[in-house]
Amino acid sequence: MGNSPRGRRTAPLVIARVLVLCALASLLLGGSARADGVSSGADVQVAQTLGTRDLTVILRRIDIAPGPLHIDVVTHTGSAPGTLKLRASTAGTTFSETTIQLDGKPGAHAAQLRVDQPGPWELGLDDGTDTASIPFIVPARVIPPWEKATFGGFVAAGVFLVLGLVVAMRVRRPQLALIPAGGMVAALAVAITGAMLSASTPPPPAPGAELDPTIDNIRDPYANAQMSTVDFSRPPVNLAVHSPNARSGGLAEVRIAVTDGATGRAVDDLLVHDNALIHLVVISPTGRLWHLHPVRVGPGDYRVKFTPPEAGTYAVAAELARRGGGVQLARTTLSVATGTDSPAEPVPAGAGKRVVHGNPVDVEVKPGTPTTITARFSRADLQPWLGMLGHLIVVGPITDDSRVGADAAAAPTWAHVHSMIPQSPGMPGKPDETVAAYGPGVPFTYTFSAPGKYRIWLQAEREYTVLTVPMQIEVPAERAPQ
Prior knowledge:
This protein is of the alpha+beta class. 18% of the residues lie in helices and 38% in strands. The strands form 6 sheets. Strands 17, 21, 22, 23, 25 and 26 form a 6-stranded mixed beta sheet that branches. A hairpin with a 2-residue loop joins strand 25 and strand 26. The longest helix has 26 residues, at 5-30.
């Protein structure tokens, strides 16, 4: 029967049906082949203390290059009006420029630049007096290998399908159609395997975070995924702070040099950590605090300005993150000469769970166990600052209230604690300062490891104003068991 004319006529039809069924199966399975593809970029927020202005620069997500780069510059209360020039440059060449007119009112100011290629870029800021340079990465469209295998397999299966149908219908020996049919089955197996692996295979290393942001590993991070052990063990930085003309009562420019602890070379691999390249905490001799964000003017060269209110020794701590080196904290001191001193502000002292000296802070201290410190505000209209609901700086133990700066520089405890932003259903991504919907309580949890007198500063933002609540806490010694 298999050699009869009827059998010869039906054989191509049977093979064709098999090929069509395989094609339908490939289409149905193709719906589950939505591999990870390129992880879409996120907004990059970078706090900058540019001259006397505290700014937050938000680089909105970039999906395509060439294309527009949308930027929001958030100003805070007290920011002076003026013109801010923005420029996007790569390889030392400026590609696009624009300006923003700051009207002195706090809030977001929008601008747009253009970028023409993936790779490392710099965003320049210039207010006519001070300049800053923020490194950022323009991502490339990267197709993971499993996605290539998935779609390549389906394309190959389609080619084999057409070839098999042609062979089955036109060749006298329809059994030859089994050869392209076998190829189609193999291509489908590759495609289905790639689709199944796409859900469990990790994404490639992110250039600029795990890999050096070179154009090669931005376009093909899989080919450059292997890093040397040096990248995982970069040494701590050396921090040098210099302000030779700093006098109390006057605006001082502080120059900050960040060098590699092993080679002494300028460090230019800092990551945006908690929305800043460097978090600089400065504490005056009587315990006044500044939380500043120096601007980058060159590799390892950062600048910041502030007005020291009193002469003496200031404690300076820089918190930063290096690519491949993790988060680091470096401490030093800054000497300020006598000029025009202003009287110190009284610092409320508290113990026990109560409101102290009118400050909206509840403190319950238990030595050696987690302590909850909650700043309470009247309304639920707080804004995220540096990606967090609130910040808590803890320094101590302090032995002399008249030289808090010198004591803080050598204090065994120097902690920076965060109050996280609560999850809000329906709110995609990480909210920025334009969202005022949090509070009124800002809780922090910290364990004081040793008894003594500590200075703490709680910080939160409302109406584009960073509120700082200073306090002094006495941590009692643990009682010996009876």
